[in-house]
Write a structure and sequence with these properties.
Strand content: 15-25%
Number of helices: 4
Number of strands: 6
Structural class: alpha+beta
Number of domains: 1
Order of helices and strands: HHEEEHEEEH
CATH class: Alpha Beta
Shape: globular
Strand order of the largest sheet: 3-2-1-6-5-4
Distance between the termini: 37 Å
Radius of gyration: 15 Å
Largest sheet: 6 strands, antiparallel
Length: 172
């Protein structure tokens, strides 16, 4: 099956938020996530809850999910959206770069990157992306958290700050 530029009937295109709306949406999402995950220790339950609530509150999220570290590669884990890439090498794409550097990656226009090496096109509708490393309490990489938007330049320092803080709170 190949990727298509036509969005499936169950997927909505991204809707932009201004900075004030974005902060308000993150505040509401974080409050809901914290309330639902209070006392939760299961990693999968944490991941599915974070995916669901962030995608609910942030309308520019088109694809949201975790790629788990397994056997020296990234393997798709819990996500919401169209089909994700199943396996990603640490040497490939934005997710691989975030995994290998353990640093958040923000890309304003993914199609401007070298395809197949700097970016892996799992869905041609994705235009911009943020990928945040997920570290445990010892600083070991558990996963990367990947968010795509159908709009260019959807992600910025507000997203980075909220996502890094949220993931640190629930996984470290």
């Amino acid at each position: 099956m190949s990727a298509s530029a036509e969005m499936p009937y169950f997927i909505k295109p991204s809707q932009p938020l201004n900075q004030k709306e974005k902060v308000e949406a993150y505040e509401q999402a974080v409050q809901a996530i914290d309330a639902n995950l209070m006392g939760e220790t299961d990693l999968t339950l944490k991941m599915v809850t974070i995916n669901c609530l962030l995608k609910t509150y942030l309308p520019y999220y088109y694809w949201v999910g975790f790629y788990l570290v397994k056997n020296g590669k990234l393997m798709v884990g819990p996500y919401q959206g169209t089909l994700g890439c199943l396996h990603i090498d640490f040497s490939k794409g934005v997710c691989g770069k975030a995994a290998s550097t353990k640093e958040t990656q923000i890309v304003a226009e993914v199609h401007a990157l070298a395809q197949g090496t700097d970016h892996i096109a799992c869905d041609p509708n994705s235009q911009s992306e943020i990928v945040v490393p997920v570290l445990d309490a010892e600083g070991e990489l558990l996963a990367v958290f990947d968010v795509d938007s159908t709009l260019p330049a959807s992600f910025d320092e507000v997203d980075q700050q909220y996502l890094e803080n949220l993931l640190r709170k629930h996984f470290a």
